Amino acid sequence: MRQNHDQNRDQRNGRWMSQETIFKTVYQYNKEPVPKADMEKLLEIAGDYNSVKNYVYSKYSGIHGLEKIYPGYTAQNEMTRCGLRERLGLPSVYFYLAIFDALGDIKSRWSHTKARVEKNIRDNPNLTQEDRHYLRFVMKQSQCFEAILKGEEFSLTEGWKRTYDEIREKVDEHRLNQYLRRQIRRHLKQPHTDAAEGFSVSAKAYRYDDHGIYLAMKEKRQRLFIPLTDNNRYTRQLYVRLYPEDGNITIAIPVEVRAKHPEGYCNEVGLAMGMRCMFVTSTGNRYGEKFLEYQAALADYVRERVPRHRRNAANNPGRKKYTAGKARLEAALHTYINGEINRMLETEKPKVLYLPKLPGTSKAGVNRRYNASASMWQKGYVKSRLTQKCRERSIELVEVFGKGISSECSECGAAGEKVEGVFHCKACWLELPERENTARNVLSRGRSEKTGEES
């Protein structure tokens, strides 16, 4: 049975298991500029698509919408009856995709909010272990969670009810419920978007022909033809991104491809990640040594130009130039990141790749220029590209516990000190580049954790 990567994620140990197929995004482009009148029709669909999303955000992103967004058919039925589609004149092939697109954003926002609250629960010194146990329990039980947020009574099945009664006897239930409600109100934000930049398209809303694509319009039985630079044809959901200033569009298509199993990839490698150099491996090799240069160029560009844009935000003729400059620098950074990841994998040839769990925030110190770079450090992009490229090559990617990993000696395990990028161990007198010592510890810790799971 073939499975995609979403079905192969082992959430318990942060490991990507091997899989036969993966999803990649491919792109199609218009062959010639889209006429202004046709672009206006596409922008009208994008605007209506955006309006539907904002309507769903306003109606279902709050506490009282929580019970209606899983799996989402209740919200869909209510949206069908509300008459918004008829008022906008938006075809159903766009209307319902906008609904589920917005519901996906709301679910993501709830996941993010719960993660923030769970972190606060762990870090709150005023909570006892029993308090934390109670809060985690009610957050995992959807009936409890929804009822507590609404201030309502709830009922559980007999087995869960006994567990709940045992837990709540040891805590101040009213105080903790109030704490949970305050935390959710503080961190739950209603999504909203003003950027009508594009829209999703179901397979029923387009067809390929004549070396181009025909897209359904708001007018009945009308389709807009856009010549494309290639003659590839797809039968899945697409996303059309609009660039009205240039008269261009980009079509993003998720495609399923078979994973590669390259020969010679048999090593276990530990990675240390950072800003000054993207990767240092347990073998001592360095990759992405110019990463900070690319990152700093982007951060400096944004830092120098954003204040003047804010001062004249209402009438800013240079916005287009600024956006293009930023996009150019981001593209250069991303090209460099992808090239260095490819070079690292081709050189190290890992079968298993270990890396430490990254911290949630970057602590850059007092240097303003460095702070600007740290705030824009695209560690999420680096990790996502590393993850994708590991999937493509069937490399097992394992995250290991990272606390204290840079301060231990990779030779004897004793605590050491770091001076000007060099790790010194006073127990065994090891001297090693700081990041290489960290990468060795990552490899050692990853192997230990893996052995413990298999035993």
Description:
By secondary structure, the protein is an alpha+beta fold. Helices cover 47% and strands 18% of the residues. It has helices at 36-60, 73-81, 84-88, 92-123, 129-140, 142-150, 158-168, 173-187, 291-311, 319-348, 368-375, 379-392, 434-454; strands at residues 9-10, 15-16, 21-29, 198-201, 206-209, 212-216, 223-227, 238-243, 248-258, 267-273, 279-281, 286-287, 350-356, 396-400, 417-419, 422-424, 431-433. 25% of the residues are buried.
Number of strands: 17
Low-confidence stretches are 1-14, 361-376
- Evaluate the radius of gyration: 26 Å
Largest sheet features:
5 strands, mixed
Oligomeric state of the chains present here: single chain
List keywords for this structure.
single chain, 455 residues, alpha+beta, 5-stranded mixed sheet, 4-stranded antiparallel sheet
Write a short abstract of this structure.
The chain has 455 residues and is an alpha+beta fold. The chain has 13 helices and 17 strands. α4 crosses α8.
Explain the layout of strands and helices.
Layout: E1 9-10, E2 15-16, E3 21-29, H1 36-60, H2 73-81, H3 84-88, H4 92-123, H5 129-140, H6 142-150, H7 158-168, H8 173-187, E4 198-201, E5 206-209, E6 212-216, E7 223-227, E8 238-243, E9 248-258, E10 267-273, E11 279-281, E12 286-287, H9 291-311, H10 319-348, E13 350-356, H11 368-375, H12 379-392, E14 396-400, E15 417-419, E16 422-424, E17 431-433, H13 434-454
Parallel strand pairs: 10-13, 13-14
Antiparallel strand pairs: 1-2, 3-9, 4-8, 5-6, 6-7, 8-9, 10-11, 11-12, 15-16, 16-17
Helix pairs in contact: 1-4, 4-5, 4-8, 9-10, 9-11, 10-12
